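Work Package 3 (structural annotation) set out to generate three-dimensional models for the target panel prioritized at the project kickoff. During this period the team completed the workflow that converts sequence records into discrete structure tokens, so that structures can be stored uniformly alongside our sequence database. As a representative example, we reproduce one entry of 95 residues exactly as it appears in the project archive.
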Amino acid sequence: MAVRVRVRLRSGSRDVVTSAVINTGFETDTPNIAIPTPLARMLGLWPLSGGELISLETGGGETEAYLVNNALSLSLELEDRVVGPIMVNAIINPI
């Protein structure tokens, strides 16, 4: 079962509140969030103006995505408090 939490993502003056799945098995050495291109567009990160093309190993095989370092400020919005913000890298999946 997926566990979703409410997060606030901020890029410059753009701000979006959305849900994030937190139990995906996605592990990294740095704080990352994978986002679809429509959300990246809302946050001003798409079309891509910086970042790098990366290969990712997924349960369905290898795929490519774009990594933008320190792209977003992320806050976790709980019922009784806000945790963060922290800076996270954005992994943009164009598929």
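DSSP finds one helix and six strands in the chain.
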